[in-house]
Amino acid sequence: MNRRLTVSILYILLIWVNPAFGGARMQDFSQLDAMIGEFVRSSGEANARYEVSIDAPDERLQLPLCAESLQVFLPPGHRLLGATLVGVRCNTTRSWVMYVSTHIKLFRKVAMLGNAVARGARIEMRDIVFGEQDIGKLTTGYFVDAEQVLGKLAKRPLTPGLVLMPSQLTTPRWVARGDIVTLLIEAGGLQVRAQGEALADGGENDRVKARNVLSGKVVDGIVSGPGTVRIRM
User: What's the topology of domain 107-170?
Assistant: First the structure.
């Protein structure tokens, strides 16, 4: 059932149960837009900009004037982004709750390309600029720190002005299948180095399998540097 219709029905029932409501002063919702906007901005991210708009309540909706300040809240299961619901509550003896359809845009400064980058090219600091974007539209991810992007490789040709996303970039390969690598074996506070053979390609922090050349044992490890696989026992 539509939430506004639900509130209207509840109010009709209140009047029927308690005739005193029939002569009560009604709540003024003319400042609802500003009230919800302030709630979103004060509850959201500090280093971000919000644009907030609401669907005005049905003019036929009549609720008793709240003797205290209205409380704005975010209902469970909703978030401060995109099309959502925001609750407004009166906590007096004539209590009531309503839900307002709200549209929230969240703008953050994200990493973008200042220059064209060829496929397979490494992203350098000179390639990165930051621009404000509506992150609600960046459904496949984005970067807010240059360190998250530096050194990564472009999977395809990238054009200036493009918002950088994880799907566009890949981590440089630090080990390749068949490479002889250094195994850093850590156990009980001790670290032992051994020679190994990589059994898969891997970039920074990728999990790969490697074979200890001396023992022949296959182990799982994390690529921690060029030609280096760290194994925790």
Answer: Type Iii Antifreeze Protein Isoform Hplc 12 (3.90.1210)
Query: For every one of its 233 residues, what pLDDT tens digit does the chain have, with 9 covering 90 and above?
Result: 444 444 433 443 344 334 444 556 889 898 999 999 999 999 988 888 999 999 988 888 889 999 899 999 999 999 999 999 999 999 988 899 999 999 999 999 999 999 999 999 999 999 999 999 999 999 999 999 999 999 899 999 999 999 999 999 988 889 999 999 999 999 888 889 999 999 999 888 889 999 999 999 999 999 998 899 999 88
- 194 neighbors 212 (Cβ within 8 angstroms): yes
Domain boundaries defined on the chain:
3-106, 107-170, 173-232
CATH architecture for residues 173-232: Roll (2.30)
pTM for the full predicted model:
0.64
Q: Are 127 and 152 contacting, i.e. CB atoms less than 8 angstroms apart?
A: no
